[in-house]
C-alpha cells in the first residue's frame, strides 16, 4: 500500500492550474500587413475568444506532469507490503564452556546447529561470531587455559532480549555454576531456550596468608563443591625462598621471595597467587590531649582484635606533641585537628588507610537515633554526631536510623580514607561499650576478599531453577509477517529530471523562428 510521509504537500498539485491558465490566455502578437488601401477589405466581426486555444499541448502536458511529480517528491511517497520474515537462528556459548572439561559436553549439539545454518556466537559483550562450517568444528576453539571467566550469563541474556528481533530463535548454552548467573533470573522469550550445562568440579584456592606474632605462616584455603563453600586454616613454619610447602589434604604451596612483598602460589586447584606482606601490620593512633578517653576505648578494641587474629602487628599510640613515626604505617587513626595531609605526603608510594572521626571544629548535633551496621543484629544507640557533607564519590558503610551516612569510605590513588561522623566515646554512642566493637574494627582492618565468589566458587544453581533441554534436531518455527518499505522518492526524482530535460528541449524547439520562404 502507498503512504506519504508529508501528505500536506499533495495540495501543491493544484499548481497545475498555473501553466494551463498561461497557455489558454497566452495571445500571439498580431502581424501588421501593409496594404495600399483598406477600401477593398471586407469588414469582419472581432473574435476575441479565437486565441483561447492550446497552441503547444505536449509542452503543456509536460509542465503539468513536472508540477505533479514535484508535489509527489515533496510528499515523500513510500510503498509498503507484507512479506514473510525469515527467522534468525543463533546459538550462544558462555566462555566457560570452551574449557577442556566442558566443551565435549556440548560440541555435538553445537556442530549440529551450525550445519543446519545456525549462527554460533560467544556469550560475551558484542557477541562475536564463530566461523563454524563442515571443516571447522567447535572443538577447534577449545581452550586449556585455567583463567576463570567472569561473564554474567543472565546479564547477557537480558541484552539478547532487547537486541534480537522478535522473530529470532536463540539457544543459550551456559554452565550451571552459580557464579556465572548473578542477579535476577531474566524472563526469556518463548523462542529462546536456556541450556545450563552441568560441569561437575570441585575447586580449591588460596584465600589469604600472613605471618603470625609467633613468626609462623598462617594459610587460609577455600574449598567449594556443588553445594557449599568452606574455609580451612593451616599454620606452617616460616618458609625459605623457593620452598614448596606441603599441606595435608590440600595442594602444595610454593613460596617466592621478592624485594617488596613475597608471594605464595597454589600448585593445584585454582593455581592462584596471592601476595604476602614481609613486615608486620603497623597501626598508628594519633590523638589530641582532649581525646585521651576516646583512645582508651579504641586501643583496647584494637588490641583485642589483632591478638584474636594472631597476625604480627605493631600498635603505636602517639599523643600531641610527641613526634610521629618515620616508618610508614598501614593504618592511621587520626583523632586530632592536626592536618593529616603533611603526614601522608611523607609516604606517597605506600598503600595507607586512614580513619578520622568528628573534629573539634565541627558542629555537634544531638541525636536520638542509632547506628545501622551491616552484620550487627542489634542497633547501637547514637547520642551525638556531626553532619556528613555531600560526597557522591564516597561509599557509605554505616548509617544512622534515618539513613544518613555515619561511616564512609573513599579511595584516593593508593590510599583509602574512612570518615566516622561521630566519636568512639560513650557520650557519643554506645559503640565503645558494645561487645562486638573489636569485631567491627577487625572487619575494617582486614576486609574480606570476595574475589572467590567470582573466580573460584563452584556451587551450582538450585535444581528447581535448572531446566536443561536436549537438542532434538527439529524446531517449531513460526513465520511472522513483517513489512518491506520501498522509498519511491529516488525514482520520482529521476523521472522528474528526465521530464525536465524533455520539457527544455521542446520549449527550445518551439521558440526557434521560422524562416520565410519566397
Automatic annotation (TrEMBL):
<feature type="transmembrane region" description="Helical">
    <location>
        <begin position="57"/>
        <end position="75"/>
    </location>
</feature>
<feature type="transmembrane region" description="Helical">
    <location>
        <begin position="6"/>
        <end position="25"/>
    </location>
</feature>
<feature type="domain" description="Aerotolerance regulator N-terminal">
    <location>
        <begin position="1"/>
        <end position="77"/>
    </location>
</feature>
<keyword id="KW-1133">Transmembrane helix</keyword>
<dbReference type="InterPro" id="IPR024163">
    <property type="entry name" value="Aerotolerance_reg_N"/>
</dbReference>
<protein>
    <recommendedName>
        <fullName>Aerotolerance regulator N-terminal domain-containing protein</fullName>
    </recommendedName>
</protein>
<dbReference type="InterPro" id="IPR011933">
    <property type="entry name" value="Double_TM_dom"/>
</dbReference>
<keyword id="KW-0472">Membrane</keyword>
<keyword id="KW-0812">Transmembrane</keyword>
<dbReference type="Pfam" id="PF07584">
    <property type="entry name" value="BatA"/>
</dbReference>
Amino acid at each position: 500500500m502507498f503512504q506519504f510521509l508529508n501528505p500536506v504537500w499533495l495540495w501543491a498539485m493544484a499548481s497545475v492550474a498555473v501553466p494551463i491558465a498561461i497557455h489558454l490566455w497566452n495571445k500571439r502578437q498580431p502581424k501588421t500587413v501593409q496594404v495600399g488601401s483598406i477600401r477593398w477589405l471586407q469588414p469582419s466581426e472581432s473574435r476575441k475568444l479565437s486565441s483561447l486555444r492550446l497552441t503547444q499541448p505536449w509542452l503543456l502536458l509536460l509542465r503539468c506532469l513536472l508540477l505533479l511529480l514535484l508535489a509527489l517528491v515533496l510528499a515523500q511517497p513510500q510503498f509498503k507490503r507484507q512479506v514473510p520474515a525469515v527467522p534468525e537462528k543463533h546459538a550462544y556459548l558462555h566462555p566457560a564452556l570452551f574449557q577442556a572439561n566442558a566443551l565435549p559436553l556440548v560440541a555435538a549439539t553445537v556442530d549440529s546447529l551450525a550445519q543446519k545454518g545456525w549462527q554460533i556466537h560467544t556469550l560475551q559483550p558484542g557477541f562475536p561470531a564463530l566461523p563454524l562450517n563442515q571443516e571447522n568444528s567447535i572443538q577447534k576453539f577449545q581452550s586449556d587455559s585455567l583463567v576463570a571467566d567472569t561473564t554474567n550469563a543472565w546479564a547477557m541474556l537480558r541484552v539478547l532480549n532487547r537486541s534480537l528481533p522478535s522473530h529470532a530463535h536463540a539457544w543459550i548454552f551456559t554452565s550451571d555454576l552459580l557464579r556465572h548467573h548473578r542477579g535476577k533470573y531474566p524472563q526469556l522469550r518463548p523462542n529462546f531456550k536456556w541450556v545450563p550445562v552441568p560441569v561437575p568440579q570441585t575447586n580449591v584456592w588460596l584465600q589469604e596468608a600472613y605471618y603470625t606474632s609467633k613468626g609462623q605462616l598462617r594459610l587460609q584455603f577455600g574449598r567449594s563443591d556443588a553445594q557449599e563453600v568452606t574455609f580451612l586454616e593451616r599454620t606452617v613454619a616460616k618458609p625459605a625462598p623457593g620452598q614448596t610447602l606441603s599441606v595435608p589434604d590440600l595442594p602444595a604451596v610454593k613460596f617466592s621471595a621478592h624485594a617488596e612483598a613475597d608471594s605464595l602460589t597454589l600448585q593445584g586447584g585454582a593455581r592462584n597467587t596471592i601476595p604476602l606482606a614481609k613486615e608486620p601490620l603497623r597501626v598508628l593512633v594519633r590523638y589530641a590531649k582532649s581525646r585521651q578517653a576516646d583512645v582508651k576505648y579504641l586501643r583496647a578494641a584494637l588490641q583485642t582484635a589483632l591478638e584474636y587474629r594472631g597476625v604480627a602487628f605493631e600498635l603505636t599510640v602517639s599523643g600531641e606533641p610527641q613526634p610521629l613515626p618515620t616508618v610508614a604505617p598501614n593504618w592511621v587513626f587520626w583523632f586530632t585537628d592536626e592536618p593529616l595531609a603533611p603526614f601522608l605526603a611523607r609516604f606517597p608510594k605506600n598503600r595507607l588507610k586512614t580513619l578520622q572521626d568528628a573534629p573539634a571544629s565541627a558542629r555537634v548535633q544531638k541525636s536520638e537515633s542509632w547506628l545501622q551496621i551491616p552484620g550487627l543484629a542489634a542497633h547501637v544507640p547514637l547520642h551525638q554526631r556531626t553532619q556528613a557533607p555531600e560526597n557522591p564519590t564516597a561509599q557509605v558503610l554505616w548509617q544512622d536510623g534515618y539513613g544518613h551516612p555515619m561511616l564512609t569510605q573513599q579511595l584516593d590513588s593508593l590510599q583509602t580514607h574512612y570518615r566516622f561522623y561521630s566519636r568512639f566515646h560513650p557520650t557519643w554512642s554506645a559503640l565503645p561499650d558494645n561487645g562486638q566493637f573489636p569485631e567491627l574494627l577487625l572487619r575494617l582492618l582486614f576486609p574480606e576478599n570476595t574475589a572467590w565468589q567470582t573466580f573460584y566458587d563452584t556451587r551450582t544453581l538450585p535444581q528447581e531453577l535448572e531446566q536443561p533441554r536436549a537438542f532434538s534436531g527439529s524446531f517449531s518455527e513460526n513465520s511472522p509477517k513483517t513489512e518491506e518499505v520501498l522509498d519511491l522518492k529516488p525514482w520520482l526524482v529521476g523521472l522528474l529530471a528526465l521530464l525536465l530535460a524533455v520539457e527544455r528541449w521542446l520549449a527550445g524547439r518551439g521558440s526557434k523562428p521560422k524562416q520565410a520562404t519566397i
